[in-house]
Write a structure and sequence with these properties.
Blueprint (H helix, E strand, L loop, with lengths): L1 H25 L3 E3 L7 E2 L10 E4 L13 E4 L2 E4 L3 E5 L3 E7 L3 E5 L3 E7 L3 E4 L3 H25 L4 H22 L8 H27 L2 H7 L3 H27 L4 H30 L3 H9 L1
Parallel strand pairs: 5-7, 6-8, 7-9, 8-10
Antiparallel strand pairs: 1-2, 3-4
Helix pairs in contact: 2-3, 3-4, 3-7, 4-6, 6-7
């Protein structure tokens, strides 16, 4: 008789352990369900939904609230009608026949699938768009460098190499138009005007660079080209002031503001170089220049 009692006690103990394990892994356990009353569930284990999102239980036909469930942040499946991923660092939704997908507040949001009727990804575009913008700027830099290397004329090659920084700045500002809100069009307009100025300064610098030492020895530097170059730099300095003002008004990310400032700095540096070039050219006096001065 003692053996039977001990066996029963052991069996009851084992059942209790199994039930406790099921409660920890699968969430709430049904305690009772009396006719005419709603079922009662045991409380969840503290960490039963640590890596997921707790979703409230559904109300059944009798008005009873079912047990809450735990959903993963990533959703994968077939015939998914609606998927929402919120407040996550990474939200990935994949499947077939997805009708509606919303990924919000994520650093990375990926929506892939077949026959997706609606796919919305918000909050993840900032970091990705800025990275894409930087990549685009780097690609343009490589293009400009390659273009310069392929120029056959040594004077053109030198001039283009000198002005590649400001050429890149113009292309960078144009590429930012969609990322800098309402002032995007104004900045793009200034960038286009700057681009026209670059064409002029390239031609003027090329004229100065082409002037041989022999010509400079006799007649001096190209004062006309130098004066025109100085005039272009003055106009460009006004454009740079407008860019600085627009940058301060920009309601955009700090990284975008930093990129704008980087382009402005390149433009300012180029104007200083061109102004110094023009002033140095005007100081070059040839023999005939001195003779004219002596005769005057």
């Amino acid at each position: 008789m003692k053996k039977i009692i001990i066996s029963i006690l052991v069996l009851v103990l084992l059942c209790s352990v199994v039930l406790a394990q099921q409660q920890t892994q699968a969430g709430p356990t049904l305690i009772s369900a009396v006719d005419g009353t709603c079922p009662q569930y045991a409380p969840h284990a503290p960490d039963w939904c640590e890596d997921g999102t707790i979703v409230a239980g559904e109300v059944d036909d009798d008005g009873c609230i079912g047990p809450p469930s735990c959903e993963d942040e990533d959703a994968t499946g077939t015939g998914i009608e609606s998927v929402t991923v919120t407040g996550t660092d990474t939200g990935t939704v994949t499947g077939t026949g997805i009708e509606s997908v919303t990924v919000t507040g994520t650093d990375t949001g990926t929506v892939t699938g077949t026959e997706t009727d609606t796919g919305t990804v918000t909050g993840d575009s900032k970091g990705q768009a800025i990275a894409a913008l930087k990549q685009k700027i780097n690609q343009k830099k490589e293009e400009l460098e390659s273009e310069t290397e392929n120029l056959g004329n040594k004077y053109k090659q030198k001039v283009f190499k000198n002005q590649n920084a400001v050429r890149l700045a113009v292309h960078s500002l144009l590429a930012m138009e969609d990322r800098i809100g309402g002032i995007g069009q104004q900045i793009s307009q200034i960038a286009r005007e700057f681009n026209n100025s670059i064409k002029a300064t390239i031609n003027l610098e090329e004229r100065i660079q082409k002037r041989s030492r022999f010509v400079k020895f006799f007649v001096g530097g190209d004062e006309e080209a130098a004066e025109e170059l100085e005039e272009e730099t003055k106009k460009n300095e006004e454009k740079i002031k407008k860019l600085k003002q627009l940058k301060e008004e920009c309601d955009c990310e700090e990284e975008i503001k930093a990129l704008i400032q980087e382009q402005i700095a390149s433009m300012e540096g180029e104007q200083v170089r061109l102004k110094n070039l023009a002033q140095a050219e005007k100081k070059i006096r040839g023999i005939f220049s001195w003779l004219r001065r002596s005769s005057d």
